[in-house]
Specification:
CATH architecture: Roll
Largest sheet: 8 strands, antiparallel
Strand content: 35-45%
Number of helices: 5
Structural class: alpha+beta
Mean pLDDT: 97
Length: about 170
Amino acid sequence: MLEKCDVKSLDQNVFSLIGEQWMLITAGTAEHCNTMTASWGGLGVLWGSDVATCYIRPQRYTCEFVEGSDYFTLSFFGLEYRKALALCGAQSGREVDKVKECGFTVRTGEGGAPYFAEAELVLVCRKVYWQDIEPAHFLDPEIDERWYPEKDYHRMYIGKIVETYRKK
């Protein structure tokens, strides 16, 4: 069971959480949401607020949901959910009901933001900024060559963390 907590009480290594354990970015409503696995993002302080950043390619179905919502959530799971997170990263919500396939239970936070009861940690974020990655700003051309051969540059979202939940 998840309980509300203060984001400043978290003591996990964010590099491991995001880059190795992965996270689900979710947006929409409890009745109609989409989620995707991500291993790019960050947590920090910006404009006097605790924030999370995430990056979504424009062709991802989840991008439509984040665009159409004021809130998104970042959910982190234990290793027993690795297969489910792999499915959420490999399948499109246009063709597969990922929530149903993974057996997730949808809950909602502030603003009706959907998240999953099975998570160990959830950050509910209110969007405060977005920006498209601009290839002209790469100082290292290898980044563009390696990560964007199809020129499908990510959109960055910054969200103010408005609620935090963690497993009891």
